[in-house]
Amino acid sequence: MKHIAESTVRRLSLYLLFLEEFEERGLDTISSTELAARGGTTPTQVRKDLSFFGSFGKRGLGYPVAELASRIREILGIEREWRVVIIGAGKIGLALAQYRGFSQRGFQVRAVYDSDPAKIGTRSDGFEIRALDSLTSDAREEPVDIAVLAVPASAVQRVADLVVDAGVRAILNFAPHQLKVPPHVAVKTVNMAMELEGLSFVLTNHDD
Amino acid sequence: MKHIAESTVRRLSLYLLFLEEFEERGLDTISSTELAARGGTTPTQVRKDLSFFGSFGKRGLGYPVAELASRIREILGIEREWRVVIIGAGKIGLALAQYRGFSQRGFQVRAVYDSDPAKIGTRSDGFEIRALDSLTSDAREEPVDIAVLAVPASAVQRVADLVVDAGVRAILNFAPHQLKVPPHVAVKTVNMAMELEGLSFVLTNHDD
DNA sequence: ACATGTGAACTGCTTCACAGCG
DNA sequence: CGCTGTGAAGCAGTTCACATGT
């Protein structure tokens, strides 16, 4: 397949969100104009994004809502279930473990790991907290697709190395630290302070 | 000032992170090459990013670490303190309220709000949970700079409207919903499921 | 000699304009 | 005629190449 821009993939996620809304409202056809209005983009952009993957619309009519939603799920690879583990049983890790948005999209949180002996073995929201040391052997029995890292910045590179050794090929990192991983591993970092800094920049350079 | 790309601002945040690391290690000069290596970008990109705001380096030498860090803090507008409120005292909201990364960068969490009568008035991690209804009058006494929304997607637009009415000019939204706000209000949305979908896309279209 | 700072070239995402089809 | 699908044009962000300063 031709190379797809990350911005395109992000917009596909958004389109899916809107399509699910429209589906609930019982609409069965939608135009690129309506999709664009809902997401703050342009009709042309919507059509171009979709055109990379095929022709899903009917000229003069629009797109079939349910069908397009299902095609986007396929494209994103979320018609299947992904096995996810959370590393770090702190406030943020546990909040992510019980976050409904994940399971709704086929991301199954299978386990929460921590290295603090005081936490290991305890239960929280139906999740038993396992020893980080057991991750590698656990993953041999049931492979892990995605690891979500919610550990301190000072520990996260070490944890990432461990997770990569355990065979995980995708990492969602919540620590404010840029990870170094082998090229076959995909990483996304969500840096919440950085997002606030972006807002601070806009507020400071207020030229509206 | 000339228009600055969002990608440039994000990289400035990263540079600051690295500069603080270097500062701790006692280095007082750093080259664009070293900064780039740490952040997965190129030396030219680093120099171009900085050049939008002035000339901070010494030719033949590099950049003075402490001084550059302080200049970037100024540029981002984080030499001052920003007043932040969290809306939504669920797991995610409370995790964000106590998140150290915020206060370390000058983002002061002043209050946590919720609309659930069972939660209002209780304390959690040193934060008294206030009634969402009181936000507008509270904000009159002490203006709020940034609101972090950690409420369900179904409620978030209503909450955003309320927050905008209360005079808040920047919103960090954690609900999977695209907000509509007046043009003078800045919004960033962190959609955690969308990040996982990006990883799913890469895993599915594995061409490494 | 070495590393910054920057106009110019380039790359790639977005927007335009319109052909194609229901 | 309406809306999709797409090659071509436009534009923004990145990279190159080198002049400049220490």
Corresponding CATH architecture of the largest domain in chain A: 3-Layer(aba) Sandwich
Radius of gyration of chain A: 20 Å
Structural class, judged by helices and strands of chain A?
alpha/beta
CATH superfamily of the largest domain in chain A: NAD(P)-binding Rossmann-like Domain
Q: Report helical residue fraction of chain A.
A: 40-55%
Overall geometry of chain A: globular
What average pLDDT do the residues of chain A reach?
97
Q: Looking at the chains present, what oligomeric state does this protein adopt?
A: homodimer
What series of H and E elements makes up the topology of chain A?
Answer: HEHHEHEHHEEEHEHEEH
**Helical segment count of chain A:** 9
Describe, in plain words, how this protein is organized in 3D.
The structure is a homodimer of 208-residue chains. In chain A, the strands form two sheets. Chain A has a seven-stranded mixed β-sheet, with helices on both faces. A two-stranded antiparallel ribbon of chain A has the order 1-2. The model of chain A has no long low-confidence stretch (mean pLDDT 97). Chain A has two domains: 6-76, Arc Repressor Mutant, subunit A; 82-194, Rossmann fold (3-Layer(aba) Sandwich). The first copy, chain A, has 208 residues and is an alpha/beta fold. Chain A has nine helices and nine strands. At the A-B interface, helix 1, helix 5, helix 6, strand 8 and helix 9 of A face helix 1, helix 5, helix 6, strand 8 and helix 9 of B. The structure holds a DNA duplex (22 and 22 nucleotides).
